[in-house]
Known about the structure:
Elements: H1 3-29, H2 38-61, H3 70-92, H4 96-119
Helix pairs in contact: 1-2, 3-4
Amino acid sequence: MTYALLKHIHLATIVITLALFLLRGAWRLTDSPKLNQKWVKIVPHTNDAILLAAAIGMLIVANLNPLDHGWIMAKIIALLAYILLGTIALKRGKTPLQRNLAFIGALAVFAYMIAVAVTKQAWPV
Length: 125
């Protein structure tokens, strides 16, 4: 698989990830029963697996070691923070305030990851 194809897959799945996160966040805010639909529990994780596979594929094809590139390591660490905040926002938050703050935090981390990817700098500001 070529780097360009992997990058297109990666970018498409990023857009889908954000859209699904925003949708699930809105449903969580309104306590919608739609959060309990089977596809809602499957599709986001499947998409995220494809996103991650494309990212790893790009690293392999481009022969990039995250330990040698601080911006890649920054994205990996930010990804872990995003996952943690996302689970608090959508599932594990005990109060609406916890869930809302985690949701905002997850979106901020998501924006940071995009900025890092675009600038290829761990501190993009």
